[in-house]
Every structure is written in C-alpha cells, then in structure tokens.
Amino acid sequence: MFPLNQMEYQHINLNTMKNKLLLLSFFTIGFLNAQTCWKQLSAGAEFTAGIANDGTLWAWGLNSSGQLGDGTTTDKWQNLNQSSSLTNWDKIATGGIHCIAIKTDGTLWAWGNPSFGRLGLGNLNNLVITPTQIGVDNDWVTVAAGDASSFAIKSNGTLWAWGVNENGQLGDGSFVNKNIPTQIGTATDWAQVTSGGGHTLALKTNGNLWAWGNDISGQLGINGQNNTTSTPIQVPNAQFNQIACGFISSYGIKSDGTLWAWGSNTYGNLGIGNTTLQQTPVQVGTDTDWTKVSSGLTHVLSIKSDSTLWAWGRNHRGQIGNNSLDFVSSPVQINSGTQYTTVIADCNIGGNNSNYSFSMAIKIDGNLQSWGDNERGQLGIGSRFNFRQTPQDVACPVALSTTDFDEKQFTVYPNPSNGIFYFNNINLIEFEAVIFDSLGKQIARFKNREVVDISNVSKGIYFVKINDFKNQKTFTIKIVKS
After folding, report:
1. Which of 391, 399, 384, 396 is nearest to 438 (CA)?
2. Strand-by-strand arrangement of the 140-145 sheet
3. pLDDT in tens, 209-249
4. 280: helix, coil or strand?
5. Pick from 124, 195, 307, 332: most CB atoms within 10 A?
6. 371-387 average pLDDT score
7. Mean pLDDT lowest among 22-26, 42-46, 345-349, 430-434
C-alpha cells in the first residue's frame, strides 16, 4: 500500500486463576517466540496493522485519525498494541489513515479517517476510532486499499470500491468520490485487486490483468502515457499470478516465475538496472523463481522460491535493508542466510512533505522483522524516530483475551469512556477492582465500588481486574480511556 497525493495524515490467556499467588502474573505483557506469530500484516502511512495467528487484531504507530482502531487517537510505539481482543479477524488492508478488514464470518469492517468516503460508512465527519461494520453483507473475501480509497471482492467474484476517485481509480466510470461500496461493472470473476497512487490493478480468475485510473507514467501498462481511464481496461498480453502497485509503478509475477515491472522508474524501482520509465511490462532480469512481490512508494521487496529476500529502489530511509542509503536499480539480496515467506513494503508522505518508507518481512519461522523509517514507531521495535537500515526483530504478541468470564454477569459501561466507568451486574459481596496499564503497571485499586474514576490518567487501553474473594474467581476486561 502507498499513499495518494492528498495525504492527511493481548490472549494473555486470562484464565480464571484460583491461586492468588498468581494474581499478577498475567500482567507481564510480553511476547512469545512462537513459530506462527502473524496471519497477515499490512502497512499504512507511519503505522502497521496486523492479524495475529490467533485471530486477534493489532496495530501500532501513528494514530492521529484513530487508524489503530483501539478507541483512542494516541500513537502507540512502546509495545505492540492490541486493537481488539476478538479472535475472528481474517483479512486486513491499510490505507494512508484508515483500515479495512474482514472477519471470519465474511463481514466487512472499517475505522480511521472517513474523509472522501474511504470507510464506506456513508457521509461521516467524525473519526471512527473502533472497528465499525460496513453494511450487513457477510460474503466479503478480499480487501485492498489505496491512501483514501478502498476495494473488496465478494465470494461471487464481484468487485466493489469506494473512497476518493479523482483519478478514476475506483473504476466505476466516473471521477466522483463514493462513500459506500459501489460495484465495479458486472463481472463475477475478479480474483485479486491492488491500488497505488491513483491507479488500480486487478486480476481475473483466468490471470488476465486489468488496469484503470491515473496513467501519468505508463503505470497502467497499456502502451502509452496519460491514458487515464475510469473503467477497467485489459492490459494486452499480460497474465499474472500476483500483482502489486507502487505509487506510480506496477509489478507482476507470472506463472513461470518471471517478474515484470512498468511505470515510473525514477529511483530504479522497476529493478531493470536503469532509471528509464517503461510504458508496458518489462521483465526484471532473467530469473524464473520469483514468488512474492510488494511495492512501496518507490521501493520493492520480493521473495524467491528458495525463500530468499530481495529488494531494490529508493533507499533514503534504509527501506531496502542493505545497510546503505543509496538507491538500488537491480534486485539485491537482503539478510543472506535468513529465509522469508511474506513481504510488506510501505510508503507515506511524512512531515514537511518528505517521503518516508519502511519495510517488513515474515521469516519462515513466523517471526516478523522490520526496517526503514520509524518516525512514529511503526516498526514495532519499542522505539521511534531513528530509522533502521537492516532488518530488526519484532517480538511476537501475546493476545489479551476478555472472553474468560460471562459477559452477562460482568460488564463495564460506557466503554470507551472519558474516565468514569460503571460496573453492571456485579453481584459480589466482597471484591476489588485493580486497574493496570498495558505494561502491567498498577494505576488504581478500588474495593467494593460499582463506579471507578480514572479521569486523571492518559488516554489509552487499560485492564480492569475484578477479584471475587468469596468465590475465588477473577474477571478481566479491557477498557478504553478516551
């Protein structure tokens, strides 16, 4: 994912514990070196969002538009930040300042900045800081996002789009923004979609490539520049297994393992050894073992069938990962000796209109690494500001669960709240409520009170632990101070 021009910018398995000696053990909110940490990850503008292998939702980095979905607008960088304790998240895509996601039941959800209609929730003016369902349909299977536009494919193969449309990137035959999902044409054989800085690529089930939107640098691949179109056009002689969009460039891997690129090439991001713009797909080298490709603004990550990681393009924030800041016009291997399964390249337009980018890759053991720009802590390494020129290990999250108690017996409202929380249906004779922050630090303790006040603490996620001394039970719930 990469931004458009108008950028605006855990389980801790909280099992019931009868042994009071373990009362605080679950607040060591750390990370596990599990072999499967992540189901999917996506990179937005200075933030990262992902679905852990247990189906929980996580996000960290910039949060000024509520794009982390945790009920706040506070940046999160000291730890990986859990946005939802639900365990039924399945797919996610990040735009510049919004997220689109699908649950395992096929429902579609969105959160973040609603401008230009990018959330698909109608004409909204206020930030949406928690996941909110789009419509009532439950047959969504794939999502994708540009900076301020969103795309999804249903199980019946239809393609839908919404958000900004000034370049015709939605593909509905107009240049008018849409604030609810709008079907693109009548075809029922769409299989894959990806969006760049004003242009969109999509594959049909037969592998044929279609393109639409801005074509200022030949990124549509239809043999010419400025062939901007608001409806899908088939790219001649182009069949691919996988596609990716840069800001104004495009990439695809064919069934024979060859890698192709076209469009803008200012920083050698096409990987063909020069900086010459290409108006039609050209092969990157002669190798026939490429399996994955992901593009940021002007840099590219790719994986070969032997699980080696390669990168090229612009490198001003270390986003290539080769311990250099010089751009690279041909693929170079990154972190030799380490095997990878997934790559995620991102870019954004940072402060003072400076371009920033970062990269992520999942190793074959399931662990995440990240590198490049870290201005907002989007690398997930517990720090911010300083960029990294080589891959950095990102610890696996331990998901926080609030499903170990009967919600009918114990609820907290309102949630989120400005600091005053009420306990509902808490029929306990002797109990205490202990409140901890996300690092496990106790910030308050209340005994036999049905109202707690934490108005004096900062905005963010906290955990209320109810200790029922009579019945020797423990209830825990996540609360959000807004």
Report:
1. 399
2. 140-145, 149-154, 159-163, 178-183
3. 999 999 999 999 998 777 899 999 999 999 999 999 999 99
4. strand
5. 195
6. 92
7. 22-26
Question: Please, are residues 303 and 312 in contact by the beta-carbon 8 Å criterion?
Answer: no
**Strand ranges across the sheet with 208-213:** 190-195, 199-204, 208-213, 229-239
Question: How long is the chain?
Answer: 482
Q: For residue 270, what is the DSSP state?
A: T
Q: Once rounded to an integer, what is the mean pLDDT over residues 410-436?
A: 73
Q: Which residue has the tokens 């719930």?
A: 477
Nearest to 122 by CA among 181, 184, 164: 181
Strands 290-295 and 299-304: antiparallel
Q: Are 379 and 372 in contact (CB under 8 A)?
A: yes
| Cα–Cα distance for residue pair 111/129, rounded to 1 Å | 6
Residue 222, pLDDT score: 92
Burial-class residue 100 by CB neighbours within 10 Å (0-12, 13-18, 19+).
buried
Q: Backbone phi, then psi, for 353, in 5-degree steps?
A: 60, 25
Residue carrying structure tokens 């042994």: 19
Tell me how many helices (H) and strands (E) the chain has: 0, 35
Kindly provide the residue ranges of all beta strands, DSSP E only, lying in 97-204, ordered along the sequence.
98-103, 108-112, 128-133, 140-145, 149-154, 159-163, 178-183, 190-195, 199-204
Sequential DSSP letters for 315-369: -TTSTT-SS--S-EEEEEEESTT--EEEEEEEEEE-GGG-EEEEEEEEETTS-EE
- Could you write out the DSSP letters of every residue in 30-77? -----S--EEEEEE-SSEEEEEETTS-EEEEE--TTSTT-SS----B-
Over the stretch 127-162, which tens digit does the pLDDT of each residue have?
999 999 999 999 999 999 998 999 999 999 999 999
Instruction: Compare 428 and 146 and report the one with higher pLDDT.
Output: 146
Contact 321, 391 (CB under 8 A): yes
Whether omega for the bond prior to residue 397 falls within 30 degrees of 0, making it cis, is: no
Residue 476's nearest CA partner among 442, 425, 427, 436 is 436
CA–CA separation, 297 and 3 (whole Å): 8
Pair 92, 4: CB distance under 8 Å: no
pLDDT at 2: 40
Rounded CA separation 472/113 (Å): 44
Cross-strand partners of 429: none
According to DSSP, the residues that pair with 374 across neighbouring strands are 385
Most confident of 148-157, 413-422, 468-477: 148-157
